[in-house]
């Protein structure tokens, strides 16, 4: 649709999946659900975040556990760190959150610091009566190495923006865990800018909440940047979990790899994964790949998976994408059952193995056992549900 295209400016190409951003709320009309970027989202379940619901609630707390070398503090909205990633809101909810946030939480990893223990930021909501807005900036200064874990818990209607700045030669892992209560609504946008020869691993984990919509985007400040974007999600009956990714290869000699895995079970469980990689004309000798897999455990659920590539130059090392959505593989189950493993245990082992490899790749030992336990807890909810089985592997 023409009204969804990005207007080319200063050589910037059109992208039908990533509209031109703006800080001006007037440039973001109230969505009706028919727009390309909103067509999978149940608008009515956003609790007015997309329209005019007041964003003046502060019914949440933030706790931080960090090494003494890491600087973590709340700063004013006019602090120069805000906007340092080059982020510009690309949808109405993100623009509203930018406008409404009255403070910025800033985490800085100093230059050349090697921080072994993860910095853990825990946001706890206490009510869905009022909607709240937040803003977080993570700065990994040049040649630093660190991990930051963002945990979301409790009940909330929350919209926020997260900026990530990875300095030259730095190595940063950011893990965001949406483990909300069943009544929570969370709309969040993450944007990262990756410096020369820097490495970013961005991991999104979504288990809880009534509705979670996470937009993650990245671009490069210089050559040599390497980005890995991993995702893990598990939707139950009635849940809507949506992840949208945009990788902007705007510099030559850069790399990206995207892999998201999900499972869903129960009536009206819905997951949405939209991946988009833009390879600009100047981005020669880049390498990129995006992959999404979804495992449907029961009947009555739905998965939407849409990988996209937008390529403006043929001078690249490689670019590809893949998507697969399926049910239990009957051959896998038969193999396990033929060796004396019960039906329920066989299904549990298949799902456990499906997620285990990706969880290990996150590279945060402190999280590994917790995430595997969360998968086990989700599988317990599957007891008694009609299992969907097919010869099609996921």
UniProtKB/TrEMBL annotation:
Residues 1-30 are annotated as: Disordered. Residues 17-30 have a biased composition (Basic and acidic residues). It comes from the Bacteria. Residues 127-353 form the SUF system FeS cluster assembly SufBD core domain. InterPro entries: Fe-S_cluster_assembly_SufBD (IPR055346), SUF_FeS_clus_asmbl_SufBD_core (IPR000825), SUF_FeS_clus_asmbl_SufBD_sf (IPR037284), SUF_FeS_clus_asmbl_SufD (IPR011542). Belongs to the iron-sulfur cluster assembly SufBD family. This is Fe-S cluster assembly protein SufD. It comes from Tenggerimyces flavus. The gene is sufD.
């Amino acid at each position: 649709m023409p009204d969804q295209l990005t207007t080319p400016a200063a050589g910037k190409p059109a992208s039908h999946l990533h509209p031109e951003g703006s800080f001006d709320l007037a440039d973001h009309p109230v969505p009706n659900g028919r727009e390309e970027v909103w067509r999978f989202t149940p608008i009515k379940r956003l609790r007015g975040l997309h329209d005019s619901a007041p964003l003046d609630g502060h019914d949440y707390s933030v706790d931080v556990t960090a090494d003494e070398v890491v600087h973590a503090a709340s700063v004013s909205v006019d602090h120069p760190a805000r906007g340092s990633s080059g982020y510009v809101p690309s949808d109405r909810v993100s623009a509203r959150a930018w406008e409404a946030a009255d403070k910025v939480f800033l985490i800085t990893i100093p230059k050349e610091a090697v921080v072994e223990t993860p910095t853990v930021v825990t946001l706890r909501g206490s009510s869905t009566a009022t909607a709240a807005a937040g803003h977080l900036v993570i700065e990994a200064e040049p040649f630093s190495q660190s991990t930051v874990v963002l945990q979301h818990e409790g009940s909330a209607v929350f919209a926020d923006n997260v900026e990530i700045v990875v300095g030259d030669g730095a190595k940063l892992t950011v893990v965001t865990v949406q483990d909300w209560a069943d009544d929570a609504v969370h709309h969040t946008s993450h944007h990262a800018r990756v410096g020369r020869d820097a490495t970013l691993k961005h991991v999104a984990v979504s288990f809880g909440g009534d509705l979670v919509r996470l937009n993650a985007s990245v671009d490069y400040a210089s050559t040599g940047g390497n980005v890995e974007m991993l995702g893990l999600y598990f939707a139950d009956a009635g849940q809507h979990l949506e992840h949208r990714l945009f990788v902007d290869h705007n510099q030559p000699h850069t790399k990206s790899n995207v892999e998201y895995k999900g499972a869903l079970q129960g009536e009206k469980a819905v997951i949405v994964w939209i991946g988009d990689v833009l390879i600009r004309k100047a981005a020669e000798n880049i390498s990129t790949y995006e992959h999404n897999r979804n495992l449907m455990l029961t009947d009555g659920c739905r998965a939407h998976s849409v990988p996209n590539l937008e390529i403006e130059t043929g001078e690249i090392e490689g670019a590809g994408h893949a998507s697969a959505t399926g049910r239990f593989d009957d051959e896998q189950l038969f193999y396990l059952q033929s060796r004396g493993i019960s039906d329920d245990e066989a299904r549990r082992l298949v799902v456990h193995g499906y997620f285990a490899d990706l969880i290990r790749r996150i590279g945060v030992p402190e999280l590994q056992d917790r995430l595997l336990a969360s998968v086990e807890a989700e599988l317990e909810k599957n007891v008694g549900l009609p299992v969907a089985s097919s010869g099609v592997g996921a």
